[in-house]
């Protein structure tokens, strides 16, 4: 499971700056999910081979009257979800009363806390840090988030106890891991039950924290799958019992952990910003994707037309995914989803030999040469596969940094078409040199 790091501290100590450093994503997944305040941001990052999730909790002003209230607030619940807390203070401002109040609170939680002293650029770090020993949270760690100093070391250090993303073993490798995700009430639990249907489910009962999803291994038509159930169906005694509320962390983790994500959207409600945020995160991770428009039963022709039009307009960027119009409640269209899941999985995990990709590249280039730049022709020499799930195709040549976007698009579309890739995004990298 991905470790989760929460950034906590007064306003202006540099939390967002550190968040941006740690995520390298242009757009954080802004979590305006139900029950989650807008000032909380989630992102994903990686040091070495270790991926993690980072949460910017927004500022705690820490005035004495309000602090219990603030601490109990939505944004601070992130601490409960986290494995590790970075408590940030400002090395230039020195120790403030609010820091001490926050520290008192943090000491009472059982989380692993790292005291991070930011803005140590251009000042004597020993002096900057000496103040903060009194907080009783261990040795302060100096960083300068704005200058990206100390950030990697800090992250590596705090994650050193966690296991690296593990490669699945042979048995696990063959299993298609499917995550069912979506907003609350779109029909995830109903769909999970449908998908499992009559299949023989290996029943097991595993204790976990509330942020863990349930992994359900089963077979269908002789093919092994593991369903990652974020809705907690199997933890309920009966379907009417609501065991836990929607958890964004659980959703993000299960997306990362899946081969194929099934994003469930409530067709009756139409596309919401929350659906699009979730889709944005799925796209960032590069997972294969199937989109289920649920509650298709009993919709009028007019309503169906409306949602199809919305999809065409707003989901263009996920055009590689197959769409299914289903009723999880009555079962219509659900069985057919397996076809798309399998197809997406095969494409996401496909392995292509270098000579095949290179021959393909030669053909594609022969059909349509790259343009000249500054009187020189860009040469594309060979291609090899750089990874799977998502597939990465690395194209080598000279001056590839001058390749126009339109030509890259042409190449990409050709590769996707000829290799018959469906249901997964494909990443292309261009390298210059031999
Ligand atoms: P947040 O409110 O805790 O999220 O703080 P921000 O990330 O918005 O940063 C507050 C201010 O501190 C901004 O003006 C940043 O440019 C500045 N800042 C952040 N990190 C550093 C740093 O490492 N050194 C210095 N000198 N300034 C920093
Ligand atoms: P979850 O929160 O995403 O797990 O959603 P649930 O599976 O608990 O479903 C929420 C509500 O939507 C329940 O009342 C379901 O009976 C209803 N529901 C789920 N799927 C369908 C469907 O295909 N059609 C209709 N009409 N209702 C559905």
Automatic annotation (TrEMBL):
Keywords of this entry: GTP-binding, Nucleotide-binding, Repeat, Ribosome biogenesis
Superkingdom, natural source: Bacteria
GO biological process, one term: ribosome biogenesis
Residue sites binding GTP 1 per the record: 9-16, 56-60, 118-121
Positions annotated to bind GTP 2: 182-189, 229-233, 294-297
Keyword GTP-binding: yes
Cited PROSITE patterns: G_ENGA
InterPro entries: G_ENGA, GTP-bd, GTPase_Der, KH_dom-like, KH_dom-like_a/b, P-loop_NTPase, Small_GTP-bd
Span of domain EngA-type G: 3-166, 176-349
Pfam families recorded: KH_dom-like, MMR_HSR1
An example molecular function term from Gene Ontology annotations: ribosome binding
Record carries keyword GTP-binding: yes
HAMAP family: GTPase_Der
Function: GTPase that plays an essential role in the late steps of ribosome biogenesis.
NCBIfam families in UniProt: GTPase_EngA, small_GTP
Family the entry assigns: Belongs to the TRAFAC class TrmE-Era-EngA-EngB-Septin-like GTPase superfamily. EngA (Der) GTPase family.
Subunit structure: Associates with the 50S ribosomal subunit.
Protein name in the entry: GTPase Der
Origin species: Neptunomonas antarctica
Taxonomic classification: Bacteria, Pseudomonadati, Pseudomonadota, Gammaproteobacteria, Oceanospirillales
């Amino acid at each position: 499971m991905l470790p989760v790091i929460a950034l906590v501290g007064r306003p202006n100590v540099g939390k967002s700056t550190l968040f941006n450093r740690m995520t390298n994503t242009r757009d954080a997944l802004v979590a305006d999910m139900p029950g989650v305040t807008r000032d909380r941001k989630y992102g994903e990052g990686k040091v070495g081979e270790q991926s993690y999730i980072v949460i910017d909790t927004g500022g705690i002003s820490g005035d004495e009257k309000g602090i219990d209230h603030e601490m109990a607030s939505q944004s601070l619940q992130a601490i409960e979800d986290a494995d590790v807390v970075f408590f940030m203070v400002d090395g230039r401002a020195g120790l403030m009363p609010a820091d001490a109040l926050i520290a008192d609170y943090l000491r009472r939680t059982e989380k692993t806390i790292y005291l991070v002293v930011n803005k140590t650029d251009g000042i004597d770090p020993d002096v900057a840090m000496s103040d903060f020993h009194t907080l009783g949270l261990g040795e302060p760690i100096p960083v300068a988030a704005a200058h990206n100093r100390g950030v990697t070391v800090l992250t590596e250090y705090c994650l050193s106890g966690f296991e690296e993303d593990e490669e699945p073993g042979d048995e696990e490798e063959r299993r298609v891991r499917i995550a069912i995700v979506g907003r609350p009430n779109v029909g995830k639990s109903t769909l999970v039950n449908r998908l499992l249907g009559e299949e023989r489910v290996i029943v097991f009962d595993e204790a976990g924290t509330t942020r863990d999803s349930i992994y359900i291994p089963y077979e269908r038509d002789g093919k092994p799958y593991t369903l990652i159930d974020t809705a907690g169906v199997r933890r309920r005694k009966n379907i009417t019992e609501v065991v836990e509320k929607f958890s964004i962390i659980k959703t993000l983790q299960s997306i990362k952990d899946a081969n194929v994500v099934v994003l469930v959207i409530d067709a009756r409600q139409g596309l919401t910003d929350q659906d699009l945020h979730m889709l944005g995160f799925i796209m960032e991770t590069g997972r294969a994707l199937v989109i289920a428009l649920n509650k298709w039963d009993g919709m009028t022709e007019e309503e169906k037309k409306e949602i199809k039009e919305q999809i065409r307009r707003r989901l263009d960027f996920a055009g590689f995914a197959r769409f299914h119009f289903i009723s999880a409640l009555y079962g219509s269209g659900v069985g057919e989803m397996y076809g798309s899941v399998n197809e997406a999985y095969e494409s996401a995990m496909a392995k292509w030999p270098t000579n095949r990709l290179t021959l393909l590249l030669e053909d594609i280039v022969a059909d349509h040469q790259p343009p000249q730049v500054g009187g020189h022709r860009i040469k594309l020499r060979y291609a090899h596969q750089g990874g799977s799930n998502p597939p990465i195709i690395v194209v080598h040549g000279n001056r590839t940094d001058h390749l126009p976007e339109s030509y890259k698009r042409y190449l990409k579309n050709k590769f996707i078409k000829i290799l018959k890739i469906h249901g997964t995004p494909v990443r292309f990298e261009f390298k210059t040199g031999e």
